[in-house]
Design goal:
The structure holds 2 protein chains of 2 kinds. Chain A is of the alpha/beta class. Chain A has a domain of about 180 residues: P-loop containing nucleotide triphosphate hydrolases (Rossmann fold). Chain A is built from 8 helices and 12 strands. Chain A has a 6-stranded mixed β-sheet, with helices on both faces. In chain A, strands 2-1-4-5 form a 4-stranded antiparallel β-sheet. Chain A is globular. In chain A, about 45% of the residues are buried. Chain B starts with about 40 loop residues before the first helix and ends in a 9-residue tail after the last helix. The longest helix of chain B has 26 residues. In chain B, the strands form 2 sheets. In chain B, strands 2, 3, 5, 7, 9, 11, 13, 14, 16 and 18 form a 10-stranded mixed β-sheet that branches. Chain B has one domain. Classes of the chains: A alpha/beta, B alpha/beta. Chains A and B meet through helix 2, strand 7 and helix 3 of A and helix 3 and helix 4 of B. Bound molecules: adenosine-5'-diphosphate and magnesium ion (MG). Magnesium ion (MG) binds next to helix 1 of chain A.
């Protein structure tokens, strides 16, 4: 049983006004095949948690640990973490001019596996994932995320998730900006990855909507840089009805 | 009282820049002239001030259907159709040349012509090339440069009515080579010139194309790709002269710089003349800085002398790696080294894929790859901690 464990994580970021504390002691454990929803108001630090796990250089870890099956991730470089089995579907995927989707995917797959994928099987996997995500074949020759719509960028993130087969994925607001059809397509992709590989998921979202399609086992309410409350799927329903106000009382947001 | 501030009036418009085929019409170069402002004068002085050997130098070329290549005596060659020297090195070469290398594209579907020039040596030389595309012809001429050289040259390009000509000049000189090249092009009615400069190797390489859109409806696509390593000086000053009505130009130059004292210069002049109604022009230059200690000068300049144009724009930028791009690639397991290579390769691919010659595109992709591998070695060495505290 694989497990991703986040313990007492403190993270800050440098701003023009000086060092700003964002994460203030996050504790979370995600087991293999589990889906944990992280819900919270804007600015509560959800993306910071995602970036800190992935190792973005802007976010400074002040304390705590992130381990994958007991191995410390925080000492590793960004690419080493990915090769260890972590994946981040970004809230705002970056455009890479001049690098085609197919070249990018093959390069990433080769890096993750430590060897180039066999051509035949690779093309087949790529084709079937793209078809399932309703991505036209022409996307293979387009530059990564360049000129993609918001929905296309999110699908491209899930395409990578399916092909790179990580142990744990953080999905940062993959649902935001998607219409219902796109939301279903993306959710199906996430569920396929889960079924096929026993993926553990940290599903960051602002809304309850996606949780109808990707069923969470646990829900954590994130406020002011830490988990304020946790429960089962029923907590998400309650949040939808009541909003975050209850948690924001007295909380130092932002 | 006059309202116009004197600072709004250009000191000298591009159309009024002095030109002459006689070197004595240009005063000795001091380095204060705008056209010599950035260049390392001590490395080029023998080409601007000294005597040049204008004899023919052996070269190789491909036998390509629909094209011809020959040496023509200076006395009988038709020169000066496409332009007149605007600087002293160019005029110096103009006067010294004994034979003119004449390349003609005569067929509607001419085969790609490759001219390889690699037998220059360290003696200061002058050369003159005339490339002519006959009316309604279509073809590609590639000039490749290797080995050592101390060369000042003029390249004239005459694109006849309705012709489609691609001229590519590739500089892969040895590190010690000095190459000052002025290209003059005149593009006829409804004709198109695709002009590509690729400068990868050489100590001092300056290729300045002046492209005159002389015929109505003529157009040019001018591209440049350069990669400057430590100590290299690479300069290019594209000048697009919109003379006739309904002319169109697109200028796109991209460069990468890596290593101490890698220096690139791009000066892009666009002149939309008084009769160039309906002109559509855009020029841009982008530089990617891969290490400390480099210098990229990038100066776009647009002069408009008619009010009735379709569009005229310019863009110039010089920047480092986008950290977010690197993070994105690394978060997919790709090492930093490979991520950097992917980004630079992608940045320069935009130009390479425009050349239109599959074989050359493939070869240049490999050449850029080799530059990147070399750059990575330099970068890694610079980043490695030194035991003695890194005394320079
Ligand atoms: N790179 C950064 N520079 C400055 N402030 C940042 C940066 N990243 C995040 N923040 C700040 O940290 C807080 C948490 O941001 P974020 O993690 O993006 O929240 P969420 O994803 O929950 O909306 C916000 O106040 C935000 O402005
Ligand atoms: Mg966020």
């Amino acid at each position: 049983m694989s497990v991703l464990k986040i313990e007492d994580l403190h993270v800050s970021v440098e701003t023009e006004q000086g060092t700003k504390q964002i994460l203030r002691g996050v504790d979370l454990a995600v087991g293999e095949g589990e889906t944990h929803a992280i819900m919270g108001p804007n600015g509560s630090g959800k993306s910071t948690l995602a970036y800190a796990i992935a190792g973005h250089p802007k976010y400074h870890v002040e304390g705590g640990s992130v381990t994958l099956d007991g191995e410390e991730m925080l000492d590793k470089s960004v690419d080493e973490r990915a090769r260890a089995g972590l994946f981040l579907a970004m809230q705002y995927p970056v455009e890479i001019p001049g690098v085609s989707v197919s070249n990018f995917l093959r390069t990433a797959k080769t890096a993750i596996d430590g060897q180039a994928p066999a051509i035949r099987g690779w093309i087949k996997d790529l084709d079937s994932s793209m078809t399932a995500l309703r991505m036209d074949k022409s996307f293979r020759e387009r530059n990564v995320n360049e000129g993609f719509s918001g929905g296309e960028k999110k699908r491209n993130e899930i395409l990578q998730l399916e092909l790179l087969k990580p142990k744990f994925a953080v999905l940062d607001e993959t649902d935001s900006g998607l219409d219902v059809d796109a939301l279903k397509i993306v959710s199906e992709g996430v569920n396929r990855a889960k079924e096929n590989t026993g993926l553990g998921i940290l599903l960051i979202t602002h809304y309850n909507r996606i949780l109808r399609y990707v069923k969470p086992d646990f829900v954590h309410v994130f406020v002011a840089g830490k988990v304020a409350e946790q429960g089962g799927p029923e907590l998400a329903v309650r949040l939808e009805n009541e909003g975050y106000d209850r948690f924001l009382q007295g909380a130092n947001v932002g | 009282m006059a309202l116009a501030s004197p600072s709004l009036v250009p000191v000298q418009t591009r159309s009024e820049r002095p030109s002459s085929t006689d070197v004595s019409d240009f005063p000795a170069v001091t380095g204060r002239e705008f056209e010599w402002k950035f260049a390392p004068l001590d490395r080029i002085r023998h080409l601007t001030e000294g005597a040049l050997d204008g004899g023919p130098v052996a070269f190789q070329y491909s036998e390509s259907a629909g094209t011809s290549v020959e040496w023509v005596d200076r006395a009988t060659a038709v020169v000066g159709v496409a332009g007149t020297p605007e600087d002293r090195a160019s005029a110096n070469a103009w006067g010294a040349v004994e034979k003119v290398l004449t390349i003609t594209v005569s067929s509607e579907e001419a085969e790609e012509l490759l001219v390889r020039r690699e037998h220059f040596d360290r003696s200061p030389r002058a050369a003159h090339v005339v490339i002519e595309a006959l009316p309604n012809s279509s073809g590609t001429v590639i000039l490749e440069h290797r080995g050592d050289a101390e060369l000042s040259e003029n390249v004239e390009i005459v694109v006849g009515e309705g012709a489609q000509l691609t001229v590519v000049t590739v500089q892969e000189w040895a590190d010690s080579a000095v190459h000052l090249s002025s290209h003059f092009a005149t593009v006829g009615r409804d004709a198109n010139l695709r002009h590509v400069i690729v400068s990868l190797g050489g100590g001092v390489v300056r290729v300045n194309p002046s492209i005159h859109l002389a015929g109505q409806g003529s157009s040019t696509d001018a591209f440049g790709l350069y990669f400057a390593d430590a100590g290299q000086y690479l300069e290019q000053r594209p000048y697009i002269d919109h003379q006739a009505a309904n002319t169109r130009s697109r200028v796109n130059y991209k460069g990468a710089l890596q290593g101490a004292k890698a220096h690139t210069v791009w000066v892009g002049d666009v002149l939309i003349g008084p009769h160039a109604d309906g002109t559509d022009s855009y020029e841009q230059n982008r530089n990617l800085v891969l290490s400390d200690g480099t210098r990229a000068d990038s100066i776009p300049n647009l002069e408009i002398e008619t009010g009735n144009i379709v569009g005229a724009g310019h863009a110039s930028s010089t920047g480092r790696f986008d950290d977010e791009q690197l993070f994105y690639l690394q978060s997919r397991g790709i090492s930093e080294e490979e991520a950097r290579r992917l980004v630079v390769r992608g940045f320069l691919a935009e130009i390479i894929t425009q050349i239109g010659s599959p074989a050359l595109e493939e070869r240049l992709t490999a050449a850029v790859e080799a530059e990147l591998v070399e750059a990575e070695v330099v970068r890694a060495a610079a980043a490695a901690p030194t035991l003695d505290g890194g005394a320079a």
